[in-house]
Amino acid sequence: MIISQNHSVLLLILSFLVISKSQGNVHYYDFVLKEKNFTKLCSTKCILTVNDNFPGPTIHVHKGDTAFVTVHNQGRYGVTIHWHGVREPRDPWSDGPENITQCPIPPGTSFTQKVAFTLEEGTLWWHAHSSWTRATVHGAIVILPANGIYPFPEPCGQNILIIGEWYKGDVMQIANAARTTGAGPKASDAYTINGQPGDFYDCSIENTDRFLVDHGKTYLFRIINAAMNEEMFFGVANHNLILVGIDGSYTKPLNTSFIMITPGQTMDVLVSTNQPKGLYYIAASPFFDGNDRDDNSPTTAILEYSENYQPSPSFIPMPVLPAVNDSGRVFNFTKSLRGLASQDHPANVPINVTRRIYMTVSLNELPCQYPNGSCLGPNGNRLASSLNNISFQIPQIDILQAYYWNISGVFSEDFPDQPPFFYNFTGDTGSNTLIPSTGTRVLMFDYNEVVELVWQGTSVLAAVNHAMHLHGFSYFVVGVGTGNFNNVTDPKCYNLIDPPEVNTIGLPKNGWLAMRFVANNPGVWYMHCHLERHASSGMDTVLIVRDGGTMQTSMVPPPKYMPPCS
């Protein structure tokens, strides 16, 4: 009898250990938001930081782990934090976009968010999701394989590289000025790598970031584009890159001299140190395909070989990156991306589509809000943007709360699956589409609907690339093309075998992009362009996935405390 009881206890302990291991480890982080002075470009300014750092701290986990992050807001503004690319299964309460899934965390208060890493593996990131605060409030998330085994030879070392932008002015004032005047927001004053502008900016050369490497090794670089408004070319002088991951998902190895990374995207690249020992510039330069361009220099860091060499050469080679407006190479790079689609990392591409959505993505105008005045946008109006000719309006209380508690008057469930007018890719549709409608209109989905969504670029006001991001899901990019999407001929060229699985992708200028996902994550999920100047002017909407028929297919209840809406 005693032996039997001991055996039962042992089995119970072993079962608990197996369950605990299968569910991963639990990590706890404290993020203290507060203002701190930083000096760059020969001047000092106060910025909002996390734990006094810019960029902020890195979250390190394994696939299957859970992190609880307590955000302590000691700043001047209400702020939210978003875990970019983390699906948060059935739990939108911790997703973070302001007035979409929560109201901002008031100054002087704290809020704990649960971040569950389930299917993601690779590099993601976190950032503020309130107005323009993410300019300085962001950091990396490193998700290691649960078993410690990569689908490529294990690198000798790993480095995090975050591309950003630096503004001499106060970013909140810049955003408010754009809203008040109707003009486009002021451009940044520098691009940065890990918070440093690099050698080609004033008062910056002493702080340029350096990556120390040994000769004859291979290193994994985890690259994040945290810039507010710029898609970026990236490369390392005289070194090829092998792309092996995007957005927390593995890719087939892509040997390339450069990558093009949009705001919101993450890319994992291998760099082999097989060149003569010395110094080599790492650089990121902007890709502009519209009319508005700034004059910022490329941001640089340095790849430094650790062995004997001339320590301060008179010439450091620069990577040869595409021209600033080379949209052809951008398109070809996007089209060349392939998911790994291996036995251990399969591509579960949805095949039997039950819901098809065609969504135009446009820049627009809205009438000036001053009855007797003139705004500084085009034609004396305000700059705006839209999806399916609807410029989204952020409500005063969060949509998730309104949906869960059946609060009326906050949003309407009538976002259309098709645009109200036919667009051709030149946007030649007359004034009907120049001034969009406005409202807080959302897309509703039944649980487990198989969705194909085609984003269609237009040039109603101007034609540019857009960085399209979806919360709560990763999606498969099954097709991309130029001109107008043809729903008869273009699907014949879809890649349903090994498409890349992403959460953010560049929609080509005057082109289309088709993606698929299964609506199996109940809750309220934000979709928007990750160019901040577009997201803050209406290029966004919300997807609501209804509960399934069981507890396991339904949204979890809210935590005991959520930040109040005032």
UniProtKB/TrEMBL annotation:
Residue ranges constituting the Plastocyanin-like domain according to the UniProt record: 34-146, 159-308, 417-547
UniProt signal peptide: 1-24
Pfam entry (one): Cu-oxidase_2
Entry's cofactor comment: Binds 4 Cu cations per monomer.
Catalytic activity of the protein: 4 hydroquinone + O2 = 4 benzosemiquinone + 2 H2O
Enzyme Commission number(s) from the entry: 1.10.3.2
Cellular compartments annotated: Secreted, Extracellular space, Apoplast
Keyword entries, A-Z: Apoplast, Copper, Glycoprotein, Lignin degradation, Metal-binding, Oxidoreductase, Repeat, Secreted, Signal
Gene Ontology terms for molecular function: copper ion binding; hydroquinone:oxygen oxidoreductase activity
Entry keyword annotation includes Metal-binding: yes
Any one cellular-component term (Gene Ontology): apoplast
Cofactor(s) it depends on: Cu cation
Keyword Plastid: no
Gene Ontology terms describing biological process: lignin catabolic process
InterPro entries, per the entry: Cu-oxidase-like_N (IPR011707), Cu-oxidase_2nd (IPR001117), Cu-oxidase_C (IPR011706), Cu-oxidase_fam (IPR045087), Cu_oxidase_CS (IPR033138), Cu_oxidase_Cu_BS (IPR002355), Cupredoxin (IPR008972), CuRO_1_LCC (IPR034288)
Family of the protein in this entry: Belongs to the multicopper oxidase family.
Purpose of the protein: Lignin degradation and detoxification of lignin-derived products.
The name this protein goes by in its record: Laccase
